[in-house]
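Hi Y.,

Following your request, here is the sequence exactly as I used it, all 352 residues.
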Amino acid sequence: MTVVDDVAKTVPVADKTDKTDETGETGETGEAGAWRQKYEAASRDVYRATLLDLAKSDPRIFVVDTDMGGFEDTFEAELPDQYVNVGIAEANLMGVSAGLAADGLVPFANTIASFAATRACEQVKVDIAGNNLPVRIVGTHGGFSAGHYGPTHHALEDVAILRTLPNLTVVVPADAAETEYAIRAVADTDAFPGPVYIRLGRKATGLVHEGPYAFRIGRADVLRGGDDVTVVATGPLPVSEALAAADLLAARGIGARVLNMHTVKPLDEAAVLGAARETAGLVTVEDHVLVGGLGAAVSELTAEHHPCRVRRIGVPDGFHDEVGSERELLALAGVTAERIAAAAEEVVRHAP
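Below is the corresponding structure, written out as tokens. Let me know if you'd prefer a different format.
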């Protein structure tokens, strides 16, 4: 079974029945406009606003910050007793957060993804994961999203490192709306009593979801149906490129199922193995090195339970010292709709 019942949790969604708003328009138009206005934003901005809203009614929620900026004039200004800034000291960030969690609080440890996974890895492993404490590590600037800073700020190995640690759930939202769902879900320590890593980007990346939907940690989001081949993607731009690839494939007469695998650990085994049985094979897409990330997780699962053809699209091995936007660097790495479509065509072409 993919997700145990006490881990999977559906986040309530807004009522989508037809209504008339104050402009006289029916619900879909008015709601769609409000949705777009709220969520066409950077995921990290929606994260901050969501956390402040939650913390106002739950004094156990703390922000533990590392001089990241953005929380001082919002969260700290309104809830100074629930805010701690440890400065640029990521190892200390994890230790302080572990201490707060051990005392019954729900700390959200806020830092850059590359620093959370590498600079503070020992503290995450020993203090947080090893003790199964409810620390929520939120790493912004995931993948190539801080590409303008150069390779010191690339977070291309964080998922590989952190998914190996015990008890740790790993979530990579596809857009700002999914970020809010994820933050609200993990704030519930009854449903998620252990540690969680949530990987966010830096700037707005566009919407994947155009309206409310049933979000469950540990359960893949089926964005597109298809019986010929399956594309499994994680993260904002990889998911967007996967959807664009499905459009290219549809024009060529190939039906591509698209799975938004927002939870890399625990992986939705039922969705992956179902796709392995029902389609010619799988193409994985991620803003991460090919070693140890989503593609590796999918390959491990299928190799053990249902061997099939898997093609992985991600960042190749090497030191990537180019400077550019996230989309530019992903294109240089070959994470594009065209390459995804070509890999999917190859999978279909070699189907038994």
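The mean pLDDT is 91.

Thanks again,
Q.
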